[in-house]
């Protein structure tokens, strides 16, 4: 592997760095964007029980706020529920915007990696072909070994760039879709909470 990287030339260094960064982001986002962490069903069910039994207080609101991103959104709405429906909805939207920003963390760098690594590979291709033509100009086409070295460098960097970019792009699209699904789920629970608090809907406690 080291010999292969060495044969690819200096541009293999940023390509390898991009691959390490992409792998780190993918592993971190897989861990962070779990439904059980972002929008755990037990958190919502426990909140409905508190509301139904009129046990909701400041201490439990604080616990709800720190339990998960969804808990943070719901707690933000409940803290301002007494000020009316519109203020409650605005509070939920404010918290939701911050939560969404956190969920999308590192996705832009991952998309950047997916974009620039093929370009780095293409640059390696161009540099490799320049070396080939320079060798042809100096020594003609008789030295096949030198020509093969330049062509090999061009092909290795191109392959390496694509090998990093393709998984990074797939992961980036997957995580964007994952965030959208989580946001929809949290939005539905937030709407339900507003309707319950303002008497437009009955509490539906799962398993109660």
UniProtKB/TrEMBL annotation:
Species of the source: Marinobacter albus
Domain MotA/TolQ/ExbB proton channel: 68-187
Compartments in which it is found: Cell membrane; Membrane
Membrane topology: Multi-pass membrane protein
Transmembrane segments: 6-27, 110-134, 154-176
Family: Belongs to the exbB/tolQ family.
Domain of life where this protein originates: Bacteria
Any Pfam family matching the protein: MotA_ExbB
Record keywords, A-Z: Cell membrane, Membrane, Protein transport, Transmembrane, Transmembrane helix, Transport
Name of this chain's protein: MotA/TolQ/ExbB proton channel family protein
InterPro entries with a match to the protein in the record: ExbB/TolQ_transport, MotA_ExbB_proton_chnl
């Amino acid at each position: 592997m080291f010999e292969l990287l060495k044969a690819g030339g200096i541009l293999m260094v940023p390509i390898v760095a991009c691959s390490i960064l992409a792998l780190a982001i993918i592993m971190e986002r897989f861990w962070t964007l779990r439904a059980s962490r972002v929008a755990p069903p037990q958190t919502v069910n426990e909140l409905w029980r508190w509301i139904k039994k009129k046990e909701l207080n400041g201490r439990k609101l604080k616990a709800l706020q720190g339990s998960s991103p969804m808990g943070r959104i719901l707690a933000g709405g409940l803290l301002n529920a007494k000020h009316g429906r519109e203020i409650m909805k605005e509070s939920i939207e404010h918290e939701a915007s911050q939560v969404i920003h956190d969920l999308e963390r590192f996705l832009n760098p991952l998309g950047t990696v997916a974009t620039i690594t093929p370009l780095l590979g293409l640059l390696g291709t161009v540099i490799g072909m320049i070396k080939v033509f320079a060798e042809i100009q100096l020594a003609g086409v008789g030295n096949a070994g030198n020509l093969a070295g330049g062509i090999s460098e061009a092909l290795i960097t191109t392959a390496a760039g694509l090998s990093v970019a393709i998984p990074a792009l797939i992961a980036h699209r997957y995580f964007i879709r994952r965030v959208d699904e989580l946001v929809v789920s949290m939005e539905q629970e937030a709407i339900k909470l507003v309707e319950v608090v303002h008497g437009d809907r009955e509490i539906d406690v799962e398993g109660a």
